[in-house]
Amino acid sequence: MTAKTFEPIAPRPAPVRTDGPVAWAKQNLFADWKTSAGTLMILGLLLWWAPQFFNWAVVNAMWRPDAEACRADGIGACWGVVAEKYRLIIFGRYPFDEQWRPLVATCLMVGLLVISCIRYCWKPWLPVVCVAVLAAFFTLMYGDTMGLTKVETDRWGGLPLTILLASLSIVMAFPIALVVALGRRSNLPAIRSFCTIYVELIRGVPLISVLFMASFMFPLFMPQGLTIDVLIRVLVGITLFAAAYMAEVIRGGLQAIPKGQIEAAATLGLSYWQTQFKIVLPQALAMVVPGIMNNFIAIFKDTSLVTIVSLYELTGALGLALNSDADWRPYKIEGYLFIAMIYFGFCFAMSRYSLWVEKQVNKSKLR
Amino acid sequence: MTTSTPPKKNNWSWRSQAFRGLIYQVIAIVVIGLAGWFLVHNTLENMRIRGIQSGFDFLTQPAGFDIGESLYPFDSGEHYWAAFLVGLTNTLRVAIIGIVITTVLGTLLGIGRFSRNALVRGLCSAYVEFFRNVPVLLQLLMWYLLFTEMLPASYEAWQVGNFYLSKGGLIFPVPVWAAGHAWALAGLVAGLLLAWVYRKWAFTQFEATGQLRSMFWAPVAIVSAMAVLGWVLGGAPTEMNTPSKGDFAIENGGALTPEFLAVLLGLSIYTAAFVAEVVRAGIQSVSRGQAEAAAALGLSKGQEMRLVMLPQALRVIIPPMTNQYLNLTKNSSLAVAIGYPDVVSIANTALNQTGRAVECIAIVMLVYLTTSLSTSLLMNWYNDRAAIKER
Question: Which of A267, B129, B226, B331 is 20 to 30 A (C-alpha) from B354?
């Protein structure tokens, strides 16, 4: 009888790591020769280009508001133009000594926008705060009370104007859009066709023609002796424009509500308005919040067009600040980049928020 | 047993839904009609008081202004309607070329977000996030600034072969028109017809015998061969109008102005970010099982994309893509801000010269409405073709 010797089986190799940076890079950057070639090419381009850009934007940049120094050889970006002109760019033609007023007003407005995005603040007091902030905004900007000097609306400009136009028009567009969206799905042919014509007409023309209408034709529409401020005319134009687009978004939500919901409401004896406000709209609106946020972003960007009808919001204010100044005019590109970053900051924040809302809305469906 | 008949419904009672609906509609029509009458009345009254002339008769008067660029010659002695026509062709030129560029670029970016290479994915999403969140007007102004301030003057233009890029725009050689080109064009048309016939034949053959023939490269070869044949038959004209460096400017050759380039690039790059999102959503809407099933059937990667994924993704892609095309066309009206003579810019000039605000704005709106509605009709027709064929 031979003694059995214990012979261990050779151990299996340890499993390949499938997480961690090395494995990730192997899978996502160097999976096969094609991906590797692509990675190396892009990395090469980035390594060649990024340092140049970094040198231009940071290392060789001139930060002091000194136009002479900017003109020297080897100087990259001249951020001094922002340091020199930021008050003109951000506040437009608002009287220089009074610019704390638009600053406070803008901060209030941005604060309002931020708190109305936070779920904790969706309480009955929010509308009250909205009205209060709007009143404060107009009081601060227009003045003429409480010892503030009067500043006509044609001197308003820059960021406060951009934020005012975007937020007011979206808020005013919402009820119009709601009515139009319901009207487009109404059984009454006259109302349905009016709403359809309105939406298709507005969506078929560019915003700029609506703005031209607001600034050139609107005065003709009004009775003799009645003149309306150009800011209000433009605001009405943007509102009507935004409402048509928003109505389509809301209609999309309405169409997604199954017919059974409406039939169930009818069985319970609810009237048309009860059905809409208690059954259909709460479900539909929750669904279209991301769409409305997209609308808001689009309108925020579109406010830049009012510069074409001579209202100096952010884009217009930059032209105002630099076009007539021969010293600083060559550095307009830095100015453009500066306001592009402001727009980008606002729009990017909103699009991230809209993603978050979308997640919240879908949460209820995942149960 | 007594039978109780339900009370007869009075059609003219407030409790009848139909009657209430009728009343609501009458009220709506009256209110909108009154509002319309109020606006028209005020407008006519204001025009009478201010002595503004109205009517479209100004269209047949000489325009009296020059247009920076047009596809065909235009001089200031011609009528207003001719000027509007030039504006319209300029708008359409930018819109059509822009749509082609934006579709190609946007599709590449959209597909790039599914790349296995993380760098490509990252770059594509960075592109989309950046260009989507900056106003298109600002982008147009930036491109225009780059083209007019950052490029070298035209006497020291950048040169690649016979192409010159400078503040004066992009200048390139164009062939001198000769009868041979008409022949080549005729050959191209004949080739297209022939290729179409070939594809039909190949398809019936495939259905009858199962034998697969080249459905793409062979038609392409037919079209190009016919075009070359036409060109050779026409005497093979090779004379080119080549630009050359003069003392102050670049002479001869065809030119694209910086305004056109700025509008074209700005609009295409901006819209491509949106198109990329549309394409991404479309591809994501096709379930993974479809790709796996196609692989299980032994289709190649290309066939899988062409025969299985794309036809299903297209259904989701087409409606929002139409919207993006329309947006690009409508955004081309921003060209007025950088002085590209599109229809809005011409209307603006005409408005300032004649004071006929209502008519000029009406023409602009009509142009865009027609373009929008015809594009959506065309795309709806295509959408019907691509829609699911149900019993």
Answer: B331
